[in-house]
């Protein structure tokens, strides 16, 4: 079976206090979009990492259809990227190796990285580069949530396509919901195409979310 690991890595710092409720609603929408689609429920695995001064795995990689709800984000501490990237690298290495050991083909992981773009740690770039240098380096889609988000930092983190709400609207829910819908459509097409052709196909993420461009997700 072909599996796409998908991670939401969310800033839980105190500067995100006003946006935590929005993020939790957005994750709920993503959960509903993917887990209730029988065509792809077993083709996608989802993991959730929250970070501030520390980083913790709120939800290890799992089939979303196995969960009634996701754990809630809770704002506290300062915005710190370094430990988040280190934990993400460890989680991806563990998860991809586990999926391969189970006999699955694995797409390169996709990470939806949400933050205010203002890390307080100055040494985060090393663990970030170590993540990109790892055998299972992910595609990172970075989203600047707050109106004052640092666009340069968001763009630096993104390996795919960074995007922000141009009008300063901090509501990330519609964008995350649209991305989930796009991901769902893409997996459905990939599964259908593979069945018709008798072989695997590249997965394409649609250009349906403002600021996105289509990307081919290669298999590891």
Automatic annotation (TrEMBL):
InterPro entries: VWF_A, vWFA_dom_sf. It comes from the Bacteria. It holds the Pfam family VWA. SMART domains: VWA. Residues 3-184 form the VWFA domain. This is VWA domain-containing protein. It comes from Kitasatospora misakiensis.
């Amino acid at each position: 079976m072909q599996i796409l690991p998908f991670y939401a890595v969310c800033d839980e710092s105190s500067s995100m206090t006003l946006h935590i409720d929005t993020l939790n609603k957005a994750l709920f929408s993503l959960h509903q979009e993917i887990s209730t689609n029988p065509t792809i429920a077993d083709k996608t695995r989802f993991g959730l990492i929250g970070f501030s001064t520390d980083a913790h795995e709120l939800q290890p990689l799992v089939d979303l259809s196995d969960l009634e709800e996701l754990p809630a984000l809770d704002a506290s501490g300062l915005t710190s990227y370094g430990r988040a990237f280190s934990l993400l690298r460890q989680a991806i290495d563990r998860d991809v190796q586990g999926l391969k050991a189970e006999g699955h083909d694995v797409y390169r992981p996709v990470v939806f990285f949400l933050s205010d773009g203002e890390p307080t740690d100055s040494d985060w770039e090393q663990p970030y580069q170590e993540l990109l240098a790892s055998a299972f380096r992910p595609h990172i889609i970075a989203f600047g949530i707050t109106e004052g988000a640092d666009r340069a930092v968001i763009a630096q983190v993104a390996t795919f396509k960074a995007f922000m709400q141009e009008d300063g609207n901090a509501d990330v829910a519609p964008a995350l919901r649209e991305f989930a819908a796009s991901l769902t459509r893409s997996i459905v097409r990939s599964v259908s195409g593979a069945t018709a052709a008798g072989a695997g196909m590249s997965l394409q993420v649609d250009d349906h979310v403002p600021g996105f461009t289509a990307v081919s997700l290669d298999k590891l």
